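User: My collaborator and I are trying to settle a disagreement about how two of our proteins should look. Neither of us wants to argue from intuition anymore, so we agreed to look at predicted structures for both before our next call. Could you fold the first one, then the second, and keep them clearly separated?

Assistant: That sounds like a sensible way to settle it. I'll keep them separate. The first protein:
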Amino acid sequence: MSERALELATALEAELLAQFDKLEETMQRPEFASFPVDERIEIDRKHSEISGLLTQADFMKYQISRL
């Protein structure tokens, strides 16, 4: 059971990391500064949210591995 939970947590982490990397890429583009303010704020909010979720996913994997 804990093996399956660890697989799922790893898959979740991989998906979050892909989304995080995509946002990072967008934020690094030179034209990002000219995006509408609302769009930049939304991208930054999502980036921060996913960063927190990655931390939680990492902690979940740690907890599961201890079972």
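The second protein, kept apart from the first:
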Amino acid sequence: MIPSNVQTENYNETILIPVLQDKVTALLNQTILLEAKLQIAEKQKAAIQKQLDEALQPKPTSEQNAE
């Protein structure tokens, strides 16, 4: 009979470690994609904020130009 610690080690090496490696790889890929999406969203936010700031600038009126 195989001792249980040998069975556990074999299970870890043949099943558990590869499964965990696959999950870590998937999570890493998701993280990379999310970071890229975040960078894109930050750039879009900055562009929108710039447009908003420009739109909220007081426009010179004809009275202000006369002064």
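Some points you might bring to the call about the second protein. The mean pLDDT is 89. The two ends are 101 Å apart (CA to CA).
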